[in-house]
Amino acid sequence: MTATEETPVRRRRSDATKAAILDAARERFIAEGYEGATIRGIAADAHIDPAMVMRYFGSKEKLFALAASYDLHLPDFTTLPRERLGESIMRHLLNLWESDRTLVALLRTAVSNEEAAAERVREIWSGQVLTGLGKLFGDDRELAARRAGLVVTQLLGVVLCRYVLRLPPVVDLEPEEIVAWVGPTVQRYLTAGEP
Amino acid sequence: MTATEETPVRRRRSDATKAAILDAARERFIAEGYEGATIRGIAADAHIDPAMVMRYFGSKEKLFALAASYDLHLPDFTTLPRERLGESIMRHLLNLWESDRTLVALLRTAVSNEEAAAERVREIWSGQVLTGLGKLFGDDRELAARRAGLVVTQLLGVVLCRYVLRLPPVVDLEPEEIVAWVGPTVQRYLTAGEP
DNA sequence: ATCCTACGTCAACAACCGTTGACTCTCGGG
DNA sequence: CCCGAGAGTCAACGGTTGTTGACGTAGGAT
Fold first, then answer.
1. How many domains does chain B have?
2. Considering the entire predicted model, what is its pTM?
3. Nearest CA to CA, how far is B53 from chain A (Å)?
4. What is the pLDDT of residues B137-157, one digit of tens each?
5. DNA-binding region spans which residues (chains A, B) (predicted)?
6. CA distance A134 to A128
7. N or C: which end of chain A has fewer CB within 10 A?
8. What is the pLDDT at residue B173?
9. What DSSP string runs through A81-123?
10. What is the pLDDT of residue A110?
């Protein structure tokens, strides 16, 4: 058992290095996508040997999995006023994306790396968004899935055009302009009757 | 001038090979993106040596440029009934995407290859879509750009979720369901008053 | 002071990439 | 028949990638 105080949380010297690697990995994955980012480049940013990355994270794929794990921090939809749902969601996510580009990295990678990260995006959106919206539709899972899918269609479209492709007309829009224009779309997908 | 009949169009034996390479390149770029697709793989699909690809197309980038050129074949918007514009556009593009995945390849590449092909996507959407829609708004270019941007946001979102990420709820939708749900969104972005 | 463990470095591996130049084969025109 | 040009092959190059194992080293518990 070799006790050494037996504290369950034991500050290891390597924790700082691990964190530095993870930070560097996030930046590189955001900037260059999964294929483009290299272990060597990440290691250089963290001022460390590439072998350390392998030692602590096992493989590039596992490193990405940890660097790209993400929580959308979606609010509890049932507490929001039902008629302003679309607006609220749009504003919440826009705030998130403007300050944190992790999601952009995920999207980049999901598009370029096929199955590896596409599955992860599916987890986030089908998981977090779907289960979050599920409460709104009670037990009708089919309906919830369909409407959540449409919502995701519009939301990810904004991310793609604004942050990845950087289409000028979309980049030029003010955040509140986007909320005003796109919010009603989300609202309609959520609450409007079948067309 | 070394005449040899001097016919302007002269069937060369290599034309078939060139076409085979281009076909294989399209498929590979669609399936694996720019970085993922390899000259060796493309050459194998075309049943020839990788060196032939270089001989005929010069470089991987030039090959991609030829393989990924694309025309959306947008209809003349001014001839469509104004109140069914969104529906028409959505149906037109959906038909296109269901049968031809070149656009998906472009999107993949634009994301993984950063500036090289992102510029190409901007050309297509800011060019073809913007100038197509420009006729609807007369001389107000600012307005046309903003509305076209919003439209592209929704349209590319559908492409992304349905064909690239393959989110189950979006894949399961019938084309006409998408037209019925998303068409009105496009319509609103085009014709509704400022929010 | 000493030892053991964890931290970190270094050099190399095997695989794969785009690209190149020299080579052979195949034809069609003189 | 010849022969030269185009079609196609082959092997190799220089470079980069993820990954590995052997090697040194610092630091805290004993």
1. 2
2. 0.79
3. 23
4. 776 778 888 999 999 999 999
5. 38-57
6. 10
7. N
8. 95
9. -GGGHHHHHHHHHHHHHHH--HHHHHHHHHHHSTHHHHHHHHI
10. 75
